[in-house]
Every structure is written in C-alpha cells, then in structure tokens.
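USER: For my understanding, would you kindly supply a protein sequence with its structure tokens?

ASSISTANT:
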Amino acid sequence: MVTITVLPHHEICPEGATVELNAGENLLEGLHEHGINIEHACDCSKACTTCHVVVREGFDSLEEMDDIEADLLDRAWGLEPNSRLSCQCVVADENLTVYIPKHTLNHAKEGHH
C-alpha cells in the first residue's frame, strides 16, 4: 500500500486527506474511490486539464508523461514543474503528496457553451 496525502483544497477536500492506494492504481480513480472528487471533464480521455494536480512529494516515482499530457499541461491553471494530469498517473511504490490547484479550466462548469 502507498500513502497518498492530499493537501487541503477549499472545495474538494477542505481538511486535506490521507488515503491508501495499491501500486498500479490510477491516481484519479483511487482518489475518487475515497470521496476526493477531483474534476475530470473529459472522462480520463486526455483531452482537458481539469484533473491537474501538483505532486509535491513522490513525483519521480511516477512514469514519465507523454507528449500529449505535456502539451495539455501547458494550458493548465497554476502549472508547476511537478504538475501532472491525475488521470494519467499510475501510483508506483512511493508515497505521494498531492496539491489540487484552486482553479481549473473547465468551460462546461463555468457556464460557457
């Protein structure tokens, strides 16, 4: 089991959280199973950035991102060097500390059509 520490987020996880996931689990799906409902407007099809997270600890344990993810992240709000799309992260054998940015670029949620 790997410990995932989610830092406090004003809407999604106000108190922060600690969850246990198995190595090989998808980060976004695992967090959802524990009630941490990170947005994912494209249903994990790698077409948006709404599931953007910043991996504060354990970043190097994740598989390297591909070019599509890297290109998408260029459009994410609050991009940092350790940013990832949580739908593309497979938990390895190292604990992670994850920060969920305050805002996402989700035009559907913002009322744009």
Observations:
- The chain has one domain: 2-99.
- Strands lie at 2-6, 17-21, 52-57, 83-85, 96-99.
- Confidence is low (pLDDT under 50) at residues 107-113.
